[in-house]
């Protein structure tokens, strides 16, 4: 035990090794940042394709009912659409958002629109945490949430953050493109 306490390093990091470490970290970030950004776009597009595709099923349509019928933002949709009709409409919306985000390959303007719509969708779904009975688990006290729908909806905080990142990055890419084209900021 005393050996561990008394054993001190014989060499301390020098400014040269710290600078080398910093350079290596910067090199790693130069590769990691574009890969993680592409991963974000791809993962959001896949999530929208999967969730949007599920909206065309009876199972998913019925699963939306407690969320939508209790929402002050969306309950009126059932006055216009049937349960399956609204789910199908939402499926088309989600597939479109996914395609717009994936459209970054063609244009940052497409992904900016997709990121904006995606953020709006996730703000809406997060509002279900307040309006859907059973989202909060009262027997356990605050901040306990139920598995479904509470924890299911909570994941949308991360998806909202990803959507905002897509929007911000896409707008930044549009500004860089405009600056390069016009030579002005």
Structure notes:
It is flat and about 70 Å long. It contains eight helices and no strands. By secondary structure, the protein is mainly alpha-helical.
What general outline do the C-alpha atoms trace? flat
| Distance between the first and last residues' Cα | 63 Å
What portion of residues belong to β-strands? under 5%
What fraction, in percent, of the residue positions are helical?
over 70%
Radius of gyration: 23 Å
User: What's the total count of β strands?
Assistant: 0
Summarize the entry for a quick read.
The protein is built from 8 helices and no strands. It is an all-alpha fold.
Blueprint of the fold:
Blueprint (H helix, E strand, L loop, with lengths): L1 H5 L8 H40 L3 H12 L7 H4 L2 H20 L5 H24 L15 H8 L1 H27 L3
Helix pairs in contact: 2-5, 2-8, 3-5, 5-6, 6-7, 6-8
List keywords for this structure.
single chain; about 180 residues; mainly alpha; about 75% helix; flat
